[in-house]
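Fresh eyes needed here. I'd like your take on this protein's tokenised backbone:
***
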Amino acid sequence: QVQLVESGGGLVQAGGSLRLSCQVSGKSISSFNDMGWYRQAPGKQRELVAVFTSTGNTNYAGSVKGRFTISRDNAKNTVYLQMNSLKPEDTAAYYCTYSRWWGQGTQVTVSS
């Protein structure tokens, strides 16, 4: 059984930083590249934030490019999202995805 557990969310002031982690169990992330982060703000659709593509490249939403960085540690079976220069509009529930599996989400709230 594959499980994804996100952590690292919280409340931060605008301009601050957070690092989200996604611990994957039940499958090795080194065997598959299709993973990343999405987010969903209240009343809005879920949107892509940052992902590894099937070829191993990275793809970022325009709104986070230059501020967020996705990375992975295959030895720890963990995917990360480093978020810098956070803005109130980054407030959302952030979800990790690996192949067809999704985590439960972690809340990020950015105060102005």
The chain has a mean pLDDT of 95.
